[in-house]
């Protein structure tokens, strides 16, 4: 495959509420990724940062911030913002530079210091911003939307709150085996049921927390990898960063309404499904080829939605897949072997990169107690606010 | 805080959107600059009232106080309200809104018919901010 790039290194800063600067988390993750790759920072020809607004600087910054912290060495720099898909766009940008011959080795970094409690829009009266409007006019937090999707699944597919809790039980069991996860304790169905309702029908333990964290990757051309003595690296074969197609008829965070399908019939597939399909087409693989998947479980119910959008099962069959143990460790296709957001929490610009770190660990067979046996092909999937798609397929 | 999203009083209360004169696409909240249909050459966007009634697509509530810019009195205990996403059959779109006070998630079901009514979002000494709210059609005024 001519479109492939090698993953030489992966590194993370543990997730949690550490109360330090995002620069520190990103730099720790970057140094870990470089050490994993066996490369010096001065070998890096390009650095791509996934942006954060929360760093005390009035603007979205990342790439050069990490380059400065690591020590200016003249590398090409890029900073990208795509909300939760920022990390995937950073990987996509790095890959494009490598394939275009602009750089042999690219460092990708994302890190954040998240606020406590609900994410909220930036300040000021900003009636031209849909994210501001949904808070001001409706008081609609992110969990509001998770609750709407969960209730819809219950009505249409017959999912139950007990099914949702099973996702948490599964992911916490795997997260307990991951030293980088914020929550390292197994959670029971009874504990989920006993936690407070946040947005009916979802409870506190159905919804991911906000966290601090950082993740980084060192990517290179296949030629460089071979010259560097890595004959069989984990390879990235696809990066999907598609936008939705009009009319988008699923009420998407942070919108107050969907598009109308009066003039144009809705597309055959939802936005999330199109994110996965674009990745499959680019990689030349299908869901039947997958060994495991990392999906964006902002809520337990949303993980079930991803099973269907990734084509792991038919529409409405996700809860059965879960109940049958197919997506648990030891099942046919484990989902969120890292522990997922359920165990990590959300550190927006780092998250899609952290998903790829897990793909790398699994494909190298380095995932210790949470190793998926014989892992050959992994997909990560995520969706960024305002219409940013995100999926990565990695192979060994 | 946003002009031109609704109009009228009582039975005459309506959400306002815009319709593209070239392709007939409807937009809510109103789109006044460009038609967003990628296959449309772009037409004039004209204000249109939306259907008064629709069916519940889904619903939820917020058991914790939302952060600003939502306005609520921190001195008072938080009273959750329901949020309803409503499918408008004629316009073929889904609109999210608060439920009228007193309607909780226990009163709602997917597919139930609701209608749009005026409501109060918040008020201070000088201003009352009105908004739209959804009310099950089976509920008396």
From TrEMBL, chain A:
InterPro entries with a match to the protein in the record: Thiolase (IPR002155), Thiolase-like (IPR016039), Thiolase_C_2 (IPR055140), Thiolase_N (IPR020616)
Record-annotated Thiolase C-terminal domain positions: 276-392
Ranges of residues in domain Thiolase N-terminal: 5-221
Superkingdom: Bacteria
UniProt-listed NCBIfam families: PRK06059.1
UniProt protein name: Lipid-transfer protein
Organism whose genome encodes this protein: Streptomyces akebiae
Automatic annotation (TrEMBL), chain B:
InterPro entries given in the database record: ChsH2_Znr, NA-bd_OB-fold, Thioester_dehydratase-like
Boundaries of every ChsH2 rubredoxin-like zinc ribbon domain copy: 14-45
Xref: SUPFAM superfamilies: Nucleic acid-binding proteins (SSF50249)
Protein name stated in the entry: OB-fold domain-containing protein
Organism: Streptomyces akebiae
């Amino acid at each position: 495959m001519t479109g492939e790039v090698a993953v030489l290194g992966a590194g993370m800063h543990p997730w949690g509420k550490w109360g330090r600067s995002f620069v520190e988390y990103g730099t720790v993750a970057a140094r870990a990724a470089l050490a994993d790759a066996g490369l010096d920072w001065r070998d890096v020809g390009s650095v791509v940062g996934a942006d954060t607004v929360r760093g005390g600087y009035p603007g979205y910054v990342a790439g050069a911030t990490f380059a400065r912290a690591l020590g200016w060495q003249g590398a090409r720099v890029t900073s990208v913002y795509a909300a939760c898909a920022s990390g995937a766009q950073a990987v996509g940008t790095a890959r494009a530079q490598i394939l275009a011959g602009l750089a042999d080795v690219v460092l990708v970094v994302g890190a954040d210091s998240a606020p406590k409690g609900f994410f909220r829009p930036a300040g000021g009266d900003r009636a031209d911003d849909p994210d501001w409007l949904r808070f001001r006019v409706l008081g609609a937090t992110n969990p509001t939307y998770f609750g709407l999707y969960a209730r819809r699944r219950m009505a249409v597919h017959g999912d139950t709150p007990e099914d949702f809790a099973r996702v948490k039980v599964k992911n916490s069991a795997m997260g307990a085996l991951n030293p980088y996860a914020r929550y390292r304790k197994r959670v029971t169905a009874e504990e989920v049921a006993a936690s407070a309702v946040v947005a009916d029908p979802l409870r506190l333990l159905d919804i991911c927390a906000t966290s601090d964290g950082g993740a980084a990757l060192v990517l290179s051309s296949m030629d460089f990898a071979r010259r560097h003595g890595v004959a069989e690296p984990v390879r990235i074969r696809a990066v999907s960063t598609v936008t939705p197609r009009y009319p988008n008829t699923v009420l998407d965070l942070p919108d107050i309404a969907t598009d109308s399908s009066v003039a144009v019939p809705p597309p055959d597939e939802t936005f999330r499904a199109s994110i996965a399909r674009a990745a499959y087409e680019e990689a030349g693989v299908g869901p039947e080829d997958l060994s495991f998947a990392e999906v964006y479980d902002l809520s337990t119910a949303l993980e079930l939605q991803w099973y269907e959008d990734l084509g792991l099962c038919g529409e409405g069959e996700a809860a059965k897949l879960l109940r049958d143990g197919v997506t648990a460790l030891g099942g046919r296709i484990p989902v969120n072997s890292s522990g997922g957001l359920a165990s990590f929490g959300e550190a927006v610009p780092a998250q899609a990169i952290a998903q790829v770190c897990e793909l790398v660990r699994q494909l190298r067979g380095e995932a210790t107690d949470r190793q998926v046996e014989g892992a050959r092909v992994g997909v990560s999937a995520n969706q960024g606010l305002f219409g940013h798609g995100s999926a990565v397929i990695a192979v060994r | 805080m946003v002009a031109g999203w609704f109009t009228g009083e009582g039975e005459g209360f309506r959400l306002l959107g815009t319709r593209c004169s070239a392709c007939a696409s409807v937009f809510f909240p109103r789109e006044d600059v460009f038609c967003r249909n990628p296959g449309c050459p772009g037409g004039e966007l004209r204000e249109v009232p939306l259907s008064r009634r629709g069916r519940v697509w889904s619903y939820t509530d917020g058991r914790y106080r939302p952060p600003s810019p939502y306005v609520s009195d921190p001195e008072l205990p938080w009273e959750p309200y329901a949020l309803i996403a409503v499918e408008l059959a004629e316009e073929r779109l889904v609109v999210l809104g608060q439920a009228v006070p007193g309607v909780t998630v226990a009163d709602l079901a997917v597919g139930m018919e609701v209608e749009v009514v005026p409501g109060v979002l918040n008020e201070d000494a000088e201003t009352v901010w009105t908004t739209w709210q959804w009310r099950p059609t089976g509920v008396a005024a």
